[in-house]
Amino acid sequence: MSYRSDFHCHSDISPDSRTDLVDLARAAADKGLSELCVTEHWECGHPCADWQERKKPFDIPRYLERFEAARSALGHRIDLRLGLELGNYTQDPAHAHRGMDALPLDFVISSLHTISGEDAYFFDYTQEDMNPHLRAYLEECLELARQQDYDSFGHLALPLRYAMIHAKRRLSFDACQDILDDVLREIARNEKALEANTSGYRSLGEPVPSVPVLRRFRELGGKLVTIGSDGHNEEHVGSYVEETMAALREAGFTRYVTYEQRRPVWRPL
Ligand SMILES: [Zn+2]
Ligand SMILES: [Zn+2]
């Protein structure tokens, strides 16, 4: 049996999940995963930090308490890691550091949750010419990729997934290949990982980003890739991990990484 891990998921510490961390970890163990890293939202800047503050402010002591509870209950069945998904780091670096400094983190995802200044989740994906917005998204991803305080770059291509979910539209980065290459090259140059987010299988039938983008990352010198479901509940945690491992092999990778105390650990694909 291959070594399966999920390095991107959310419990009810995050504003958009209602699942207790112990239940999330138990579901992952029941699915046969070897390792799970919980990566709660730590949103920076407007409008995402406002959203978090309004819906459910980050409760650091509770995160640590639920994590220890999960370790006590399930540590003999699954290795658990403590992580954070830093949203929109460059919009408020000081706030990002407050989160990172407060927690003994194994792993940090950097991701962008806005597009043209709006929350990507609520963006209007029906507008005719989406290319200027996709370009703006990737330009901001490039700024994020340049900063050093992360381990893996999360769900690059998030707007393509939301466009399918919210507007039944299959968009692509074809008109933005130049800036996409710049982002991939920057992640590779900094020896950071690119995340293969399995959630794309639930809407697009492929990981986020897609196999051609993962392959391009490798061509541009990228070596490190992580696998994360972005599951917010027991059903989605650990889902489509095997399909994503196959997609990574198709993109030419033979290994992926998990993280422990912010250091990569190689795993076979
Ligand atoms: Zn995210
Ligand atoms: Zn997430």
Give a summary of the structure in a few sentences:
By secondary structure, the chain is of the alpha/beta class. Helix content is 38%, strand content 19%. It has a single domain, classed as Metal-dependent hydrolases (TIM Barrel, Alpha-Beta Barrel), CATH 3.20.20.
The parts where pLDDT drops under 50 for at least 5 residues are: none
Q: Helix coverage percent of residues? A: 25-40%
Put simply, the count of helices is 9
CATH superfamily: Metal-dependent hydrolases
Largest β-sheet summary:
7 strands, parallel
Mean pLDDT: 97
Structural class: alpha/beta
Q: What separation lies between the terminal Cα atoms?
A: 11 Å
Radius of gyration: 17 Å
Bound ligand species: zinc ion
The CATH topology label is TIM Barrel
Count of distinct strands: 11
Describe the structure in your own words.
The protein is an alpha/beta fold and 269 residues long. The chain has one domain (5-268): Metal-dependent hydrolases (TIM Barrel). 38% of the residues lie in helices and 19% in strands. It contains nine helices and eleven strands. It has helices at 21-30, 48-55, 60-74, 93-102, 131-146, 158-167, 177-189, 211-219, 241-250; strands at 5-6, 35-43, 79-87, 107-111, 114-115, 118-119, 152-153, 193-197, 225-228, 255-260, 263-268. It has a seven-stranded parallel sheet with strand order 1-2-3-4-7-8-9. It has a two-stranded antiparallel ribbon with strand order 5-6. Helix 5 packs parallel to helix 7. The radius of gyration is 17 Å and the shape is globular. The mean pLDDT is 97. One zinc ion binds at residues 85, 111, 113, 154-155.
